Amino acid sequence: MAGQAFSVISNFSSMQAQKDLYFTNIGLNKTLGKLSSGQRIVEAGDDAAGLAIANSLNADGAALDQAVRNANDGIAIIQIADGALNKMNNLLLRAVTLAEQAASDTVGTDEKAILNIEFQEIMNEIDRVVSVANFKGEALFDSSGEFTKEIYVGDTQVASLITISIGGASGVGTSALGLDSSSVSTASGARTALSDLQTAIASVSKFRGALGAQQNRLINAVGIIQVQSLNIKAAASSILDANMAEEIVNMTKWQILMQSGMSSLAQANASSQMVLQLLR
Questions:
Q1: Fold of 54-239
Q2: Distance (Å, rounded) from C-alpha 95 to C-alpha 120?
Q3: Which of 29, 82, 123, 140 could covalently link to 133 via disulfide, CB atoms 3.0 to 4.6 Å apart?
Q4: What is the pLDDT of residues 44-78, one digit of tens each?
Q5: So where are the chain's domains?
Q6: pTM for this predicted structure
Q7: Are 191 and 185 contacting, i.e. CB atoms less than 8 angstroms apart?
Q8: CB-CB neighbours of 115 under 10 Å
Q9: Is 152 exposed, middle or buried (0-12, 13-18, 19+ CB in 10 A)?
Q10: 189 within 8 A of 182, measured Cβ to Cβ
Q11: pLDDT in tens, 204-254
């Protein structure tokens, strides 16, 4: 320091060098922490405001990731229901074949009776498919009414719901389709059954169309959510991620300062030893 007298008690040059080394060491440790973690903000003191913003963005990103899973659960529900309806449609098509065969007088009474046995088994299977279709134990085609679920696809800022609905058993069972009393044991009965089956197939197709529309909405929602999540994560990354090239430059700077500081401290300590030479 300017005007400092020679002293062996107070070595202000050494104190100054030690102070500078203290802050240099802090800077070097911070830089090493950023390089080792890849994070620009290792401690809250590095950028308190940026950390708060990044944490909020990360919360939204985590919520949107779960929203994608929620939407996929909704898609799974619809696919289960559609799978059951597809099976019903295949059964109805087989029933059409049997009714068409039985409607012809070229088929005898005994043959018509055999055809009717398979026809009735198909009707029973349709009702069984309706009764067993479920999602985690909940009947999808409930006789008490529609199966409805609200799918939450919002984030921490804005609430957003997509409602999916599946028609109850009253719309797809053999009774609802007008097939509960159908028979192909006679030619006239088979011809009536053909007309009823055509109506039933149209009804099932209508149900599947409604499910397909809901599934497409959920698929589109997933795509939008994924884009939103990606953009949010990119924004958080720009705040949190360290610029490795910049931090390597900083590390080099702090290392040079550390070396020069240690040299200055050694020189300052040596000056006190030189004062003692005056006593000889």
A1: f41 fragment of flagellin, N-terminal domain (1.20.1330)
A2: 9
A3: 140
A4: 777 788 888 888 999 999 999 999 999 999 999 99
A5: 12-38+242-279, 54-239
A6: 0.76
A7: no
A8: 21
A9: middle
A10: yes
A11: 999 999 999 999 999 999 999 999 999 999 998 888 777 788 778 888 887
